Amino acid sequence: MFRIETEVDKERRALLGERLRATNTARSPVLRELRGTADEEEVPLHVWLMEESTGALAGGLAAHIWARWLHVDLLWIDDAHRGTGLGTRLLKEAEELARTRGCLHARLETWDFQAPAFYRAQGYDLAGHIPDYPPGITEYFFTKRLV
Fold it and tell me: What residues does the N-acetyltransferase domain cover (predicted)?
């Protein structure tokens, strides 16, 4: 007999993650080979655009590297500087840093009102989308081969 429980439980959440990781490792030769290597660690990669005169944040990119993939989590440019090529500079800098750290590919997500056309112009390929996530918005997934 089993019972269903619905409370938030951080300890069970951690245990669930450990068990899924063990199952995935047992079932995937690729993940087994990855375990215990430097590629297994998630490494942050940040690129900041700072106003020289004030030191204020004018833009930035926050990403991480895992399994020789660059995953762009956040990219933002202040409204006053959009359309000036600064987003391209940030993205290219992050991609170059990722290449020097052994990355073969990049991936990211963006919403329909954000920057799908920008990422296509930067050489990213549409890998998929989810309509109505959240309701009224489409989320896009993009990838790019870095080498």
Answer: 1-147
Omega within 30 of 0 (cis) for the link into 44: no
Question: What is the residue-wise DSSP string for 51-71?
Answer: -TTT--EEEEEEEEEETTEEE
Torsion angle of the four alpha carbons 19, 44, 76, 144, in this order, in degrees rounded to the nearest 10: -80
Is residue 137 within 8 Å of 113, Cβ to Cβ? yes
Q: CB atoms < 10 A from the CB of 46, how many?
A: 13
pTM exceeds 0.70 = yes
pLDDT digits (tens, 9 = 90+) for 16-63: 999 999 999 999 999 999 999 999 999 999 999 999 999 999 999 999
| Rg of the Cα atoms in the chain | 19
Q: To the nearest 5 percent, what fractions of the chain are helix, strand and coil?
A: 35, 30, 35
Q: What are phi and psi of 65, to 5 degrees?
A: -110, 135
Identify any residues that bridge with 44 across adjacent strands, giving them in sequence order.
64
Tell me the C-alpha distance between 134 and 90, whole Å: 27
Round to whole Å and give the CA distance between 103 and 138: 28
Contact 109, 140 (CB under 8 A): yes
